[in-house]
Amino acid sequence: MNRTVLITGGTGYIGSHTTVEFLQKGYRVVIVDNLSNSQKEVLNNIEAITGKAPIFYQADCTDKKAMEQIFQDHSIDGVIHFAASKAVGESVNKPLLYYRNNILSLIVLLECMEKYGTSHLVFSSSCTVYGQPEKLPVSEEAPILPATSPYGNTKQVNEEIIRDFAHAEKSSLKAIILRYFNPIGAHPTALIGEEPRGVPQNLVPFLTQSVAGIRKELSVFGDDYNTPDGSCIRDYIYIVDLAKAHLAAFERLFHDKSPASSVEVFNVGTGKGVSVLELIHSFEKATGEKVPYHIVARREGDIEAIWADPTKANKILHWEAQTSLEDTLLSAWKWQQKVR
């Protein structure tokens, strides 16, 4: 495999696991990351897992000069675009940060791709584009509802930008948009995992840090939703399964000569809804550890319940989630024990 893939945000949680999958498949990987929510040491751990070192640039994807330099230095065959600010709660408090970072980074990337003749893009989108869906599980045909957070809105806008650019005259862009649900867990080697800077914005790292004694206890945001146990329901997908979906999507861009559209959309999830309280109990069963938690008020921007219909990805990408929730949570705990 001689193809070169640019992975933006490649030292981050999802990006690092995806980098591993591409390196193991024989791709040459170039990473650009500003290290705003990751550590440079991740590169050493990627190499320890794969025996191969990705090429690394520390730069911001909104910096057009820096991005052009990367495209000048390498013949980029395709791009996986992860680089973005991604916390729902933070986006409510810092909307301009999210709009600037998430939207401008995509525009700069597409301008570079056009200038240097790179046609293939896999875009990291989110189930937040569905808002609170009227029908569950949610399929790709579900209407895009008004976003409940600035983060979710940036994903909606970015999807529109990709479609508009792909449909423009003389555009050669072929893109796959992956709308994924809630990635959790860590690589089975426990060499890479989710290690956010500061207070975790996502459920599982806050949970594992609470069990490890780093945090006092986990806050469960609301127990009065219209769900069986009153807590929010999500579709939790193992990070390695999610990384493999990006590889399947990327290879479709090259191998399928007659896709249904220049821009295709796929849900990436397990197809199973799990409440926050169910996840806590599953963690306790998988690890034998007690989770300290308490119920607090609902959090602004949160959706009550959402889980995926992954049928389209199963059939067309020949991909499906394979790892059980308990095994996934056990991998997260093993990672936490290693980094604490």
Protein model, in words:
By secondary structure, the chain is α/β, with parallel strands linked by helices. 40% of the residues lie in helices and 17% in strands. A 7-stranded parallel β-sheet has the order 3-2-1-4-5-6-11, with helices on both faces. A two-stranded parallel sheet has the order 7-10. Strands 8-13 form a two-stranded parallel ribbon. Strand 5, helix 6 and strand 6 (174-180) form a beta-alpha-beta unit. The chain is globular. The chain starts with a strand and ends with a helix. The model has no long low-confidence stretch (mean pLDDT 95).
For the structure shown, list the relevant keywords.
alpha/beta; 340 residues; 40% helix; 11 helices
**What is the H/E string?**
EHEHEHEHHEHEEHEEEHEEHEHH
Main sheet specs = 7 strands, parallel
Overall helicity:
40-55%
- What amount of the residues lies in strands? 15-25%
Topology:
Elements: E1 4-8, H1 13-24, E2 28-33, H2 42-50, E3 55-58, H3 64-73, E4 78-81, H4 88-93, H5 95-116, E5 120-126, H6 150-167, E6 174-180, E7 182-184, H7 203-211, E8 218-221, E9 233-234, E10 236-238, H8 239-255, E11 263-268, E12 274-275, H9 276-287, E13 293-296, H10 311-317, H11 325-339
Parallel strand pairs: 1-2, 1-4, 2-3, 4-5, 5-6, 6-11, 7-10, 8-13
Antiparallel strand pairs: 9-12
Helix pairs in contact: 1-2, 1-8, 3-5, 5-6, 7-11, 9-11
In short, what is this structure?
The chain is built from 11 helices and 13 strands.
